[in-house]
Specification:
The complex is a heterodimer.
Chain A lengths: L2 H5 L2 H29 L18 H7 L1 E6 L23 H4 L12 E8 L2 E7 L2 H32 L6 H13 L2 H11 L6 H9 L16 H25 L4 H10 L3 H12 L1 H16 L3 H6 L11 H11 L3 H25 L5
Antiparallel strand pairs in A: 1-3, 2-3
Helix pairs in contact in A: 2-15, 5-9, 5-12, 6-9, 9-12, 12-15, 14-15
Chain B lengths: L5 H32 L4 H7 L15 H9 L2 H32 L5 H10 L5 H12 L3 E4 L2 E4 L6 H4 L6 H12 L3 H9 L4 H9 L4 H16 L3 H6 L8 H4 L1 H4 L5 H21 L1 H13 L2
Antiparallel strand pairs in B: 1-2
The chains are: A mainly alpha, B mainly alpha.
Chain lengths: 358, 292
């Protein structure tokens, strides 16, 4: 019998693959396509009004930004007017963003941030300030967590890869937080970061013999996001350590023996033997961490709820708050589509930057 | 080459171990604190945080916090729900994904290549980006059950199970593993007249222990720790899993002992499971990376 007769079977093949493919089609592909479609409508979870096609309105609403340069108010002689404290007075922003026909493109926008430029004040405006903050926070989170976590994970993997008695015990411990739910970890760390009786404050004040002033880590807009970053790295670094470790163990021992005969230094061995062997692992780890970091949600939901002052808002948190909390399915879907495009773009850039060069 | 001084070597070894132990402390202290604190009354728990006593089961030790946690919320029900949803999803997932992978690797059929590429492409879609439209879909899906024909899957076990039964990663793991199995074995059985279903059940599955363990562990971790999805689709207490059940304890700002007891209750079984099967756990994570 020919080989093709032996292995060919359209009916059995489809029957066996259909449950798996069908479930993926209904629960992943369909909602994925829906997300694109819904983002062009005004669909709500439960609504008395029929759904309407609104084109790019949702995207315009989320992504609209503008810049406005305010010139100081001057008196009749042309001198800059200052208030009692000496601060320059500017025309009110509302005059530009509320129904001013000369500035129609800024209509409905709010102040996102502003800075001084000589005597002028430059105002960055956004139609949806909270979403813009969420985007910036998420990108900051990814930009810090991805390299730091990948680097620390590699250091841990190199430590664990030593031939020492009892090394497996350490591997087991370093990996342990990965098994624990991020929700549990987040609640636990709320206690560690607590401003009054928190373990971290107590530890820091003990080390500095009481010189350290307690900080409300999660209640302060400057420290909340970094605190969440540190905790997220603590929880997930073991995961990537194990992937690095698997990569390390694929490097042939004969390469190390050759390096030893050559009398290379430790750094040289790492640079010319270990690192080239980890190339594929590095690409994979970077992409996996980036995808996980973009999905930042549970930590925010449990620890800060996006606050204080929107300093920990994230893209997924906003998608859930609108799509589920406010039942604004189309708004949540639009954010989801933007998130997907962002993840895709960054993965492609990473792939391009880390491509094989000949 | 320089001669290595034995005392120097001993010192180096000591430094290495010291570094390893120090890092281990960083990873372990929050979990020790969680379990130890769950045994203490709130007042003592708070005053202990100023010293090393925070990590030692000393003073007024009891299981009172656990009793209080069970009083506050139907903890047993939450654990039952999570275990049920996790177990059913893991079993269905192993079955459905291994069957599909079997068809992709061993059989030749029209559309096989296209279907597999589509499945693998879904790997770059984070669940978080489809959660909102999926909510709309499950809210309108029909179901035929004991109470007849109904619409909408919110507040049920199936809404927590079915979306997670089949996924690209699990199918990919099985495909990778099956590709390394000896094809001659399968072809020989075909020559002898065995049906595909028989080959799947009698030959391929018995050889698939390692990949079944890997897929089961990965799915177990995802399912037991589910949070975002059940938060959106389960409002009724009766179907709530453990992580969403935590919300009962969010509001208690100062009843930390009870919170720690609940956290310990839902975490310790997983940790125990991990310690027993740690090799399998670690190699399952590693295998997601090696060939990717």
């Amino acid at each position: 019998m020919s080989r093709s007769r032996l292995t060919q079977s359209n009916r059995t093949g489809w029957t066996m693959a259909l449950p798996g493919f069908g479930l993926i089609a209904v629960f992943i592909i369909l909602p994925f396509l829906f997300a694109f479609g819904l983002s062009f409508t005004n669909q709500r979870l439960i609504s008395p009004n029929p759904t309407e096609w609104v084109g790019f309105d949702n995207y315009r609403q989320l992504m609209g930004v503008g810049v406005l340069t305010l010139e100081p108010e001057r008196d009749d002689a042309g001198a800059v007017i200052r208030d009692e404290d000496g601060a320059i007075e500017y025309p009110r922003l509302r005059g530009f963003t509320r129904g001013n026909p000369d500035y129609a493109h800024l209509d409905g926008m709010r102040e996102w941030t502003s800075w001084q430029w000589g005597e002028d004040r430059v105002v960055l405006l956004a139609r949806d300030v909270v979403f813009m903050k969420a985007v910036v926070n998420t990108l900051t989170f990814v930009a810090v967590v991805a390299p730091v976590q990948a680097g620390l994970a590699l250091v841990l993997a190199l430590l664990i890869n030593q031939r020492l008695r009892g090394i497996n015990v350490f591997r087991t411990i370093y990996f342990m937080p990965v098994v624990v739910s991020i929700v549990v970890v987040s609640l636990l760390w709320r206690f560690i970061y607590d401003g009054n009786d928190g373990l971290l404050n107590n530890l820091l004040s003990a080390i500095t013999f009481g010189a350290f002033e307690p900080v409300d880590w999660l209640g302060n807009p400057d420290t909340a996001l970094p605190a969440i970053m540190a905790m997220s790295i603590w929880q997930a670094v073991g995961f990537h350590m194990v992937i690095w470790l698997a990569g390390l163990q694929t490097i042939s021992p004969t390469l190390y023996e050759a390096a030893e005969i050559e009398g290379t230094s430790r750094w040289q061995t790492f640079r010319y033997v270990t690192w080239p062997g980890l190339r594929n692992t590095a690409v994979l780890i970077l992409i996996v961490i980036t995808m996980q970091a973009f999905a930042l949600f549970a930590q925010i939901d449990v620890m800060t709820g996006g606050g204080p002052l929107d300093s920990t808002q994230t893209i997924v948190f906003q998608a859930v708050e609108r799509g589920y909390g406010k039942q604004d399915i189309s708004g949540g879907s639009t954010i989801s589509v933007l998130l997907f495009l962002l993840v895709l773009t960054i993965s492609l850039i990473q792939r391009y930057l880390t491509r094989e060069r000949n | 080459m320089a001669q290595i001084d034995p005392s120097n070597r001993g010192l180096r070894l000591a430094v290495r171990y010291a570094v390893l132990v120090l890092i281990a402390v960083i990873f372990i202290f929050p979990l020790v604190f969680m379990v130890v604190s769950s045994l203490k009354p709130d007042q003592q728990l708070l005053s202990d945080t100023g010293s090393l006593r925070a990590f030692l089961p000393v003073g007024d030790i009891s299981l009172d916090n656990y009793a209080a946690a069970f009083q506050r919320a139907p903890v047993g029900l939450f654990i039952f729900n999570s275990v049920l949803v996790t177990a059913v999803t893991v079993v269905l997932s192993l079955l459905v994904c291994s069957l599909a992978a079997f068809a992709f690797v061993f059989l030749e059929w029209r559309g096989s290549g296209l279907l597999l590429s589509i499945i693998l492409a879904t790997l770059i879609v984070p669940f978080e980006t489809i959660a909102i439209p999926l909510l709309l879909i499950v809210n309108q899906l029909p179901w035929i059950g004991l109470d007849g024909f109904t619409t909408g899957w919110l507040n049920s076990y199936r809404v927590q199970i079915l979306p997670f039964v089949s996924d690209g990663l699990t199918i990919f793991l099985f495909v990778q593993y099956f590709r390394d199995l000896p094809r001659e074995l399968i072809e020989a059985s075909r020559v002898e007249g065995a049906s595909w279903w028989m080959i799947y059940r009698r030959i391929v599955m018995p050889l698939s222990g390692p990949v079944l363990a890997t897929a089961a562990i990965l799915k177990f971790l995802v399912m037991y720790n589910q949070y975002l999805w059940p938060l959106m689709v389960v409002q009724e207490e009766g179907y709530r899993p453990v992580m969403v059940g935590l919300q009962y304890f969010f509001q208690l700002n100062r009843a930390w002992g009870e919170i720690m007891a609940y956290l310990s209750l839902i975490t310790l079984p997983v940790l125990a499971f991990y310690f027993v099967l740690q090799r399998a756990f670690i190699s399952s994570i590693a295998s997601t990376g090696v060939k990717g």
